[in-house]
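Let us practice reading a record.
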Amino acid sequence: MLRNNCDYSHTPEAESSVQPGSQSKAKIYRENSKFCIGRDHNHTNPEYVWRDEGPVNERKPCTARLGRIAILWRGDEVDRRTTADTSRFKAVFAALADVGVNAEPVVYEDDVIEAVRAQLAKVDGVLVWVNPIHEGRNRTNLDALLRDVVARGIWVSADPDVILKMGTKEVLHNTRTMSWGSNTALYRTAEAMRVELPARLATGPRVIKRNRGNGGQGVWKVEGLVSPRSRPMVRVLDATKDASEELVLDEFFERCVGYFEDGCVIDQPFQARLNEGVVRCYMARDRCVGFGHHKVKALLDAPAARADVGPRLYTSSADPRFRRLRRLMEDEWVPQLTSLLAIRQRDLPMIWDADFMLGSPGADGTDSYVLGEINVSSVFPIPEEASGEIARRVADRLRSRL
């Protein structure tokens, strides 16, 4: 196996560089950065590069270990046997190693929370990929654990409190005055929804969204039908289903009652250009690291529109089709977002994304973009360039502690 001569195990000397009372961290960095020179004719020393033709006497600097982080995701006992090389995050593990960061897998489930707590106590930071809802389970226990970890001085991305600010559907209401916003309403109670939604349905189809969810769970297109005032009827389409259904509006309200356990329900106008696809902009903190364009079928019931669906196609941040969207995100929207939501720039997630639908074109024919959601909790898969940028941002965060 080809190994870089800068890869070496986590030594006590390297570990001491992040412990109080250790020797000078600058000195350790210098020592670990010395050049490694030599040959290993028996192929036994991992400190050297080997290729098919034999040992290579290359002069390469060994990268200093900047720190130790955990990559945490949800899984069962089988998943706990996963290694960095076999996990779905192997590109992220590799990118972290390239910049001098030791990363280890931590597989979470509620029944092993204390073992996970012990693992996280030994690291400098945590990258988390856990959905808000997974097979009927939520993040309540995990978020409490991560808050304890943050209180101990270990950084977490994404911090649960940052998720609450920008990674729930409520962000659509809180940022509705930005140029990516729309005529978005928020209902704190089921009674408020019963009172206010009928008048909004009179203006056109609406999209109802539970505050926390993923994979289209708790997202509905709702359209008013001609019906008696005393018994209003609606056509509803669950984002996770293929066919719409017609029912009494009160029955739809009953289906949504449980959503208020998440604090609120969001109500947006349905975007007529949804059939043209959704553009996902991937961000590493405040920098765009790629795009994904997806012809979706969710919330579309026209057979022609549903027949045109396809997989998400990933592209780089330099894609000229999305040059304007990148500029808006980096130069305008992210600064406005952090200001409105009181999020420090350094607390932005290492990886997050924003989904945009096309809105009405401007007077000059330029497309507008309407925010559909921001994903923070578990952004994966990601564009190819994202892993390297995540690693650089992690290294910068760890380096700031030295």
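A brief commentary: The CA atoms of residues 110 and 142 lie 7 Å apart.
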